[in-house]
Amino acid sequence: MLDWAEKHRPKSLREVAGNPAAVRQLEAWAKVWETGRPKKRAVVLVGDPGIGKTSAALALAADFGWGLIEMNASDKRNKAAVHEVATRGALYETFTDDGEFLRRRDGGLKLIILDEADNLFGREDYGGIGAIAETIRKTGQPIVLVVNDYYELTRRSSALKRLALKIVFRRPRHATVARVLRGVAAAEGIRLDEEVLTYLAERSGGDLRSAINDLQALAAGREVVREEDLLALGYRDEHTEVFQALEAILRSGDLDAARKSTFTLDEDPERLILWIDENLPREYWNPEDLDRGIHALARADEFLGRVRRSQRYALWKYASDWMTGGVAVAREGSSAGSQYRFPLWLVKMSRSRYRRATADSLLGKMGDAYHVSRRRARLTVLPMFAHLFQTEEPFRFFQTARLDLGAREVAYVLGQKQDSKAVRRILEGAESLRRGESTVTPFSRFES
Amino acid sequence: MEQVWVEKYRPRSLGEVINQTDIVSRLQAYVKTRSLPHLMFAGPAGTGKTTSAIALARELFGDGWRTNFAQTNASDQRGIDVVRTTIKNQARMAPIGEGGFKIIFLDEADHLTNDAQAALRRTMEMYTRTARFILSVNYSSRIIPPIQSRTAVFRFRPLKPEHVQEYMKRVAKEEGLKVTAGGMEALVYVAQGDLRKATNALQVAAAVSSKIDADSLYRAASAARPEEVKKLVETALTGDFLEARSMLDDLLLEYGLAAEDLLREIYRAVYDLSVPDRMKVEMVDRVGEADYRLIQGSNARIQLEALLSRFALLGRELG
C-alpha cells in the first residue's frame, strides 16, 4: 500500500500547507535561477520533522519544470554524485549528450535536494560537509539542503552560513493540519468524525507526516472513522499523559494521587525521572521544597541503580514511589504553575554526542601514546596539551602527526570549526612533517 | 617545544627510575634470570608504576619491546567483557622472539569490577606459559585476594620533595630552563608527590618563558584546572539552581568530565571558597555523600543535582 504521506504530497508550492513566508522566499530564490545565478546558490530549509520542507522543495521543482536529483541517505557514493552533477551541470545545461540543443525548460536546471543534510556524511570523520560547501561554491545547479538542526550543520562548517540562504519552516497550526487531513481523507474516500480530526491534528503537534501516517493507520479497512475507533486502537497522547502525571506529582501535593498517576503511564521510571527532574526546579520555587524534592529523586535514583545492578525489577516500585509520592510530599509551599517541558538533558545529550565521540577518540589516542587511561588523559594530559597546542606552533604540528589526529580532533583541541583555516593549516603542517619535508623533525623521531 | 615532556623524559631504563631503589633492584634481578612472576604495582599516581613496567619490558625484550608489551586501561573499560575479549586475546597470542612470554600491563586494575577480576584470575592461570601480568593499582586492597596471592606485590612510595626536585632539575637542564628557588618549591607543592603533575606544570610554564618562578608555575598549574568548577559551586551557593544545573550539564557533556572526577574537583574547590570554615565542613560532608551515592545510583546527574540544591540551601546563611 502506498504511503499516504508520500502519495498526497503537495504538487505545487500553492498547495504547501502553512509557512507562506518561507514559500515566498523559496520562490523568489528560484526565480533568479530562471534568468541567471543567485548570489547564494543554495538554500537551507530548516525546521522540525514532517512539516513540509522536502515537500516544498519537490513542489518547487515541479512548478518550475526543473529536473530533480534527490539524495537522502548518508551513502558515500552520493558525495561524488552530488559533486559530479552539480559541477558538470553548468556546462551541459543546454545540450544533451548528443550535442542537441535544448530549451532550458527541457534540459535545463536540475534541483539537487540534499535531504537530512545535518546527518549527511555525518558519521564520517570529516570532508563530507566540506565537500557540500565546495559543491555549492562551484555549482551550476540550484541546491536545497533540508535540515532539522541548523546548528548541527553550521557547527561543522561555518562556510555554509555564508553560502546558503536560510529559510525557516515553522510547525503548522492544528487548524492547518486538520485541513490537510480533511483533504487526504476526502481524496481517499474516508469519512472522519470531527473529533477524530481534532484529536489527530493536536496529537501531531504540527508534524503533518505523522498526522497523515496516523490517519492511514486508523483508516485501514474502514470507510468511516469514529471517535471510539481511537480508543479501540489504543491511541494515547504520550505527552499529555506525562503532563497529567506531572500535574499530580508536582502540584497535587497528594501522595496517593501522585503514586497512582503513573500506574497507567507508558514510561519506564528511568525516563519518567528525567521528566520530573526537568520540571521540579521550575515548580518548587522554595529552596527547602526544592532540596527535599530533589533528594527524593536522588533516593529514587539509588533504587534505579540497584535495579540495574541486581536486575531485580521488583525494586522499581520503590524508585517509582520516591519519584512520585516522595516528590509530592516534599513540597510545603506553593507551586509555581509553570509550563511543563521536555527533559532538556536528553536534548543536550544528543546535541553533544558528536563532540563526546570526538573527545573520546582524541583521548584514546593520547592514552595510547602517553600510557594513561582515557579518563586520566582527560584530567592530566588534555588541559596542558590543549594549552600548548593553542600557543606553540611546533607542538601543534608534531602532536598532530604523532597522534595522527584528524580534522575533528584538531578542531576540538583548538576550539575551532572543522573547516576553519587554522585547522587546515595544522593538518597540512602535520602532513609535511610526516613526509619528512620539514628539516626540523624527521619522522623517525616519532618512534621512541 | 614539540613533545609532551612526561613522555619525552620518562626514564628509559630501570636504573633511571627515581626513588624506588628496592623495587628496581628486585626487578633487575628478574631481568637477569629472565623469569618473571605476575606482578602488582601498588601506589599513588605519578610514582613510576607505568614507567617501571615499560622499562622492565625494554630491558627484557630490547628494541622490539612494543610487540611483547600490551597495555589496557581498566578505568576505561571496567566490565567483565574487557577481560573476556581484549585481555584474553592479548594473553593468548604467542610472544614474538626469544622472550618466552609477553607482558600484559593492566593499568588502573583496581577499577575492574569483582566479576571482571574473577575472570581475570582464570585468564592469568590459563595463559601463564605465554603471558605475565603486571597490575597497576592505587590500592592493592581493591584487588580480590585470589589475585593478590598470585602476584608479587610491589609498593611504590610517594615521592619526597627532594626526589621531585632531582627529577625536575634534570628536565630543566635538558630544556635549558632557569628555575628559581621559589619556582622549585612551587613545583614540589604542585606535584604533591606526582611527577606527572609537576612535569606538566613545568612544560606549560616553560611555553611562556624559560625563566620559571613560583608565580609562573602557579599560573601554569591553574591553566590546567577547570575554572568552571569553582563557578559552578559559587553559582549554586547564590541559590540560582537552574543556572547551576545548566553549568553542571556543560561540565558533564561539553567538557566531558566523569561525575566522580567532577566531584573531586568540587571537593577541592570548596576549600578555596571564601565562606566560613564551618560551612566548608558541611559542604564537604555533602560532597562525600554524593560521592557515595554515585556508586549506588543510576544517573549521576541527579545525584549531583541533589548536591547543588543542598549548596543552594547552605548558601542562604551567607546572606
Describe the structure.
The complex is a heterodimer of chains A (448) and B (319). Chain A has helices at 4-7, 20-35, 53-64, 76-92, 104-107, 128-138, 150-156, 159-163, 174-188, 194-204, 208-219, 227-232, 238-251, 255-260, 269-283, 287-310, 316-328, 344-351, 353-370, 374-391, 393-402, 407-414, 421-434, and strands at residues 42-46, 67-71, 110-114, 143-147, 164-168, 191-192, 224-225. With 448 residues, chain A is an alpha/beta fold. Chain A has four domains: 4-168, 3-Layer(aba) Sandwich (Rossmann fold), CATH 3.40.50.300; 174-232, Helicase, Ruva Protein, domain 3 (Orthogonal Bundle); 238-346; 353-446, no CATH class. In chain A, the strands form two sheets. A five-stranded parallel sheet of chain A has the order 2-3-4-1-5, sandwiched between helices. A two-stranded parallel sheet of chain A has the order 6-7. In chain A, strand 3, helix 6 (128-138) and strand 4 (143-147) form a beta-alpha-beta unit. Chain A starts with a helix and ends in a 14-residue tail after the last helix. The model of chain A is unreliable at 90-105, 122-126 and 439-448 (pLDDT under 50). With 319 residues, chain B is α/β, with parallel strands linked by helices. The mean pLDDT of chain B is 88. Chains A and B meet through helix 15, helix 16, helix 18, helix 19 and helix 20 of A and helix 9, helix 12 and helix 15 of B.
**SS element count, helices of chain B:** 15
Spatial extent as radius of gyration of chain A: 28 Å
- Structurally, how many domains make up the residues of chain A? 4
What characteristic shape of chain A results from the CA principal axes?
flat
Strand content of chain A: 5-15%
CATH architectural category of the largest domain in chain B: 3-Layer(aba) Sandwich
Oligomer: heterodimer
Lateral strand order in the biggest sheet of chain A: 2-3-4-1-5
CATH architecture of the largest domain in chain A: 3-Layer(aba) Sandwich
In CATH, the topology of the largest domain in chain A is named: Rossmann fold
**Biggest sheet layout of chain A:** 5 strands, parallel
Query: Class of the largest domain in chain B, according to the CATH hierarchy?
Result: Alpha Beta
Taking Cα atoms only, what radius of gyration of chain B do you get, to the nearest Å? 22 Å
List the helices and strands of chain A in order: HHEHEHHEHEHHEHEHHEHHHHHHHHHHHH
Q: Assign the CATH class of the largest domain in chain A.
A: Alpha Beta
List how many beta strands of chain A DSSP finds: 7
